[in-house]
Amino acid sequence: MIKNDKGQSTVEFILTFAFGVSLIMLVFSTSLNYATGYLVHYATFMASRVYLTADNNLNMPMAAVADAEQRAQDVFAIYNLSIFDVPNSNLTINRISETMPASEYMTVGAKTEFQLKMDIMGRITGGEKLEMVSESFLGKEPSRAECAFRVCYAITGANQCSAIEDTTLFDNGC
Questions:
Q1: Where are the domains of the chain?
Q2: pLDDT tops 80 at residue 51
């Protein structure tokens, strides 16, 4: 065995430095994941909000749904999340339909599923990825045509109104 302490501080420095840098990289990676998650959640919320309020003013109640979905996809794409390896195609819209039961109506909105690396170098976790989900279920406001049909039905009691253009009684949310 060697009886002197020469080089001891170098070995301690290397071990401490490696541990310190690993800890700093772990904190940096975690903060980057948090920031990415918040940005994706904000983009999902904004897309869901556009889906909630979009209306193309056609005279058919369900005609606005496809247009609202496209507008929501466009808003989500504005945030350019591909920089953070979150493709725009990950946004899905839970659509409203005429046959949807009332118990499922609150699940109408936007959802994004994506993966993030747990650590930057992939050495600590073995390349495992975090499965992340961002959901924003805001529902869907009735279109102007649907409001007009509901008001017409409330006034006349008929399922079809002949002059729906003349309907002026609207309230917020029908």
A1: 8-141, 142-174
A2: yes
